[in-house]
Amino acid sequence: MLYPPQILLPGPTPVPPSVNLAMQQAMSDHRGSVFTKVKDHVLVQLQELFDVGSDGRVAVIPTSGTGALEAAAQNFFLPGDKVIGVSTGTFGERFVDITEKMGVQVRHIRVGYGKAFDPEYILEVLKEEPNAKAILVTHNETSTGLLNPVVQLANALQFIADPPLLIVDSISGVPSVPLKVVGNHVDVIIAASQKGFMCPPGLGILAVSQRARNQVITDRPGRLFFNLQPYFDGQFPYTPAVSLWYGLEEALHLLAEEGEQPRLARHQLLSRMARAFGEASGMTPPVEEEFASPTVTALAAPKTMNPVEFRKQTARLGLQIAGAMGPWHHDYIRIGHVGAILPEQLFEGLATLAHLLPAGFDGLQAAWVTWHQAITIDEEVHS
Ligand SMILES: Cc1ncc(COP(=O)(O)O)c(C=O)c1O
């Protein structure tokens, strides 16, 4: 194939050329000075990005996002513990499932697909579960393209004496959508390399507050690899994924170069463009605008084609988009715009979709107007 297909997926996401290049560096001793310097540099930058404070820590584990969720459950809970698990889609359900499989008693607040959780309701449930050790939530629910009000929940928990740990799956959120340990009062933020971190899949990242660090279970039987304690001291009892660390170092450099607020604004613009396209082309987005995810947008499948056929046709035209998950599988598709995606690249992808839709060019025009307005506002601000 002359060119790889274009991907507008909510992970894996495009890897910038300089990140790919960084990963081609020669192998070196993972206990030697070259790698140690990279590792220390990456950890310091991640600690800043997640704002873990002087006594919080970040662990980078060679695993996928699911592995990082499992690592969180293993390090903070024992069989018989009680937690509150909130699900707003497939990934919230997965976190609950992992935790239950560990023998933990989960009070499952099942909000359902396409709806955000209500922080007030979670606080009400907490009154009924005074012994809950933690609240598990999803920041950006990738299966539906929905951003939950995690910051509001975290703020509300501040008014409770000795609140449970707030453990957040932000795998498709951070760093495209900022979330901070100290700044937002979150105890554990879980991320993965293949989304906003613009790297290939393979690294799970856990940012942990001082309070959560003090609650890590250090002597759990049957666990070595996922014990977070050595990670907090910058050590690992195995050979790390050296090349991915090189890539992550470069990706962190690119993230710092763009800056947090411009990055969020770019993702929000991508979301508005995808939604404008959907609304004008008959692929109405099912999630309310207030809770629209900046990184992934679900759209109704076209009336003329089922989602599987639609995705086959887009792939034939050189564009990979995602199917919807769980009960949404038969009715929706998802467009990922997380990580290294610019408005012009999204526009190119939407142009491919437009070929397949009776009102596709109305959608394209709506996306263009949304983009153009953002450029005009930006120019006015900077003139
Ligand atoms: C919110 C969320 N949680 C968990 C996962 C699972 O991550 P992985 O596929 O890397 O195991 C994903 C992956 O898309 C996700 O988006």
TrEMBL record:
Q: Name one GO biological process term.
A: glycine biosynthetic process, by transamination of glyoxylate
* Pfam families (alphabetical): Aminotran_5
Q: What cofactor is needed?
A: pyridoxal 5'-phosphate
Please list the residues that carry the modification N6-(pyridoxal phosphate)lysine. K195
GO molecular function list: alanine-glyoxylate transaminase activity; L-serine-pyruvate transaminase activity
| UniProt keyword annotations, A-Z | Aminotransferase, Pyridoxal phosphate, Transferase
Residue limits of the Aminotransferase class V domain?
A: 12-274
Q: Which PROSITE patterns match?
A: AA_TRANSFER_CLASS_5
The record's annotation in Gene3D superfamilies points to: Aspartate Aminotransferase, domain 1, Type I PLP-dependent aspartate aminotransferase-like (Major domain)
Say which domain of life the source belongs to: Bacteria
Q: Which residues bind substrate?
A: R334
Family assignment from sequence similarity: Belongs to the class-V pyridoxal-phosphate-dependent aminotransferase family.
Name listed for the protein in its UniProt record: Serine--glyoxylate aminotransferase
